[in-house]
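Protocol step 4 of 5: obtain the predicted structure for the target chain.
Materials: sequence only (see below). No template structures provided, no constraints applied. The aim of this step is simply to have a reference model before the mutagenesis design in step 5. Sequence pasted as it appears in the construct record:
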Amino acid sequence: MAEAFLRVSGEEPVPARLRGGVVAIGNFDGIHRGHQAVLERALEEARRRGVPALVLTFEPHPRKVFRPNVPLFVLTPPHVKARLIEALGFDGVIERPFTRAFSSQSAEDFVTAILQDQLGISHVVTGFDFHFGKNRQGGPAFLMESGERHGFGVTLVDAFRDEGAEIVSSSRIRELLTQGEAAEAAGLLGYRYTVEAEVVGGAQLGRTLGFPTANMQLSPETTLKEGIYAVRFRRADGTLHDGVASFGRRPTVGDNLAPLLETFVFDFSGDLYGEIASVSFFGYLRGEIKFDGLDPLVAQMKLDEAEARALLSAVRPLSELDQAIAF
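Step 4 output (structure tokens):
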């Protein structure tokens, strides 16, 4: 039986069974198709060698450390990133703290302290433009030379381009989601954009209207376009339901409310409060509207439900990862 996936956070020591493996290094926010090109090479190399396959990443995102006053829409918070990495087939993810002190260590110290002493790697896979260490002094040439000195192999993966020959990047995906282009973002991610959070209590207006919702608070830095989406809702036990979700400020029932993700889960009745659930976004249906009373709101919600059911009845997995996450 395969051993359980391990998530090693903070300064936790790396378990012995993960040492000596192939490690993919990067921030990997989004685990998009470009990242997957790097990760798949690492998996192939690990299988060829018969050693563990690992991902080494850093939390928080470096931009949050160097530009703390500039909000950053993080596509995959650590728990979501770990779930995607596990679904791809890795044995573990190592999440090392990213601080200014960490960023100021030399490239040689990074290789010696982390790659050699902590992980004891046999091979490293990175993107062709990966840099590390103080003032980004460690680049591809330095990494390859370090591998020769320390006894590990190095694979550099070229930039991944989409069908339009544009480089796939986290920034492009953030922009698409900010514009409500959920389907286009999925094309770059290779799976449907997914959030995960605890189901919290709300005003229960939806229940009164016949549309009870599972409510989630997303990060205030999330710039997903406000509006109505066709979604899939996965419960903590793994069961999956189609649904329609509203992300926004509920203008018909209040002013200046904090953004909330409210999912009407189709064909379900029960208590979801306190569950950690996930929502995968398949399509943007419309923007938020301030209705003149609750009756026109209910009428529109019925139309939204019908449109979401129709859209979701025709969807197919984009990839094995999409199959694992949203199907």
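Step 4 remarks: The two ends are 24 Å apart (CA to CA). The chain has two domains: 6-157, 193-326.
Proceed to step 5.
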